[in-house]
Description:
The complex is a heterodimer of chains A (276) and B (305).
Chain A: H1 2-33, H2 38-41, H3 56-63, H4 67-98, H5 104-113, H6 119-132, H7 140-143, H8 151-161, H9 167-174, H10 179-190, H11 192-208, H12 211-216, H13 225-236, H14 240-260, H15 262-273
Helix pairs in contact in A: 3-14, 4-8, 4-11, 8-11, 11-15, 13-14
Chain B: H1 11-26, H2 28-49, H3 66-72, H4 75-106, H5 113-121, H6 128-138, H7 145-154, H8 168-193, H9 197-205, H10 210-238, H11 242-248, H12 259-268, H13 273-301
Amino acid sequence: MRGSRVLSTMFGYLGLTLAALFFLLPLLWIAITSLKTPEQLFQYPPRWWPERPTLENYAYLFSKMPFIRYSFNSFKVAGLSTIGSLVSCSLAAYAFARLRFAGRTALFYVLLATLMIPYQVTMIPVFILMRSLGWVDTYYPLIVPWFFGGAFGTFLLRQFFLTIPTELDDAAKIDGCSAFGIYWRIYLPLAGPALTALAVFVFMFQWNDLLTPLIYLSDPDKFTLTVGLAFFKGTVVTRWNLIMAGAVISALPILIIYLAAQRYFVQGVALTGLKG
Amino acid sequence: MWRAGPRASSPAGRRRLRETLEGQAFLLPTILGLALFWLGPVMASVLISFTDWGSGQRMVSWLGLANYRALFTSSLFWKVFANTWYYTVVSVPVGMLLSLGLALLANQKLRGIGLFRAIYFFPSIISMTAVALMWSFLFNPDLGFINYVIRRVFHVPGPEWVNSIQWAMPALIFVGVWKWAGYNMVIFLAGLQSIDRSLQEAAAMDGANNWQRFRHVTWPGLTPTTLFVLVIMLIGSFQVFEQTYVMTEGGPAYATLTMSYYIYLNAFQYFHMGQAAALAYVLFAVVCIVTALQFTLQRRWVFYQ
């Protein structure tokens, strides 16, 4: 019995380690490539660890290429979208979770149904709308829609709000608190973890998005990191050490947020995976 | 605080009215957003798909079904359609098995399991742009790590990957599966953890082996989660765009041109908005039919506790 337990633990770790290598080795190879000089890049057979690792690829991207500007642009877009999503989705989620009014269920299902609509279907009319507003080549089309709610965020927060005991509302109502007061003073302060999960998700989604900025931005000074990176690949073609440094730069802020707030990423995925 | 005066004939009616107004105030951004960014565009898209809407022209003319007819008689469209199915039909089952396998591995009660889960999940939070660039390099026929390994282990030159008509699509599929496996693993893990442990223990007491316990206890309990993962994977894979854009631009010889990328080209490179809208509606129809099919077929295999 003991022997078989040791054996199953060993096999368990063996499987876990092999799977980890499947994900880690490519990432490690990329990180190392970003520290190589062009000569080391073309060396055959390739070496895992270059003799003299160098940071000059990063220095080049930050000084000669506008990667600082790209990062700043991405921060602006992702940060403002996050704020918009937190405000609009939490308001809607509170109404769906706690207020009783005609058409609540129907509206909620219409909202959820939007999750099924491919982005490509709405992309063209929304582009025409944005163009008529004169918003092409600005950040408005990337940010403003996030101030108008969204199925994912509303669903996530509603699920959390439903777990808050209604006794708290009743007590507040007796004290003369309005619906907005209950939302502001009771629900928002209690929803810290869910709001963080949503913030992490929206920030990551917007930081990583390629298609929307690609459609709207044409001035290279306004590019976000993803667009800048894709554009950059086209201009340097074979300088893989530089491209890999760019990929690392774009992934680093997300990695930092992930290390700081890992459980919120996982909660966000798991919460939406459960039936509502 | 304002209170109903003596004239309020029905306090309940007033309260209901107040709650409705409050609800609508809270939902104002959401309702506007639905109208402006979802329902309005979904309807506008149909109308646009019946026109020759392009860029810059003064007059837009009504074409009826001509855009759709042009699609269905174009051999390139059928190529794109087939490519999209190729991507989906391979990446969904492979990705599903991989993420389920990872979830079973990561569901073991072992020390340090959190670290392993974190590693598996990590690729799903990096941008697909960065991931696709990474893999463009790893799949590079001359300098790439993959072909280096193939040369060392099998002593044959590796394929040309993204430059090859035959191997470009498998490379894109691999990248999609690699990136999203950890994400779907987390959903499967949540599903595994919601299965009643006492059922497992009872089965073990009755002498069921590992496979029997998986087949008759774990799997039935996991079918609702599997359905959810299946639906989101299908919807996602029909919309594959970024790998194509970064790694192949639809080539070589249209071998990796997918619906989503073709819509992007039509709308924003060729400025054939009408044609692009028609394509988008074909994509929408495919997604709807496939999803509806999943919800119909689920009665045969999904087990609700």
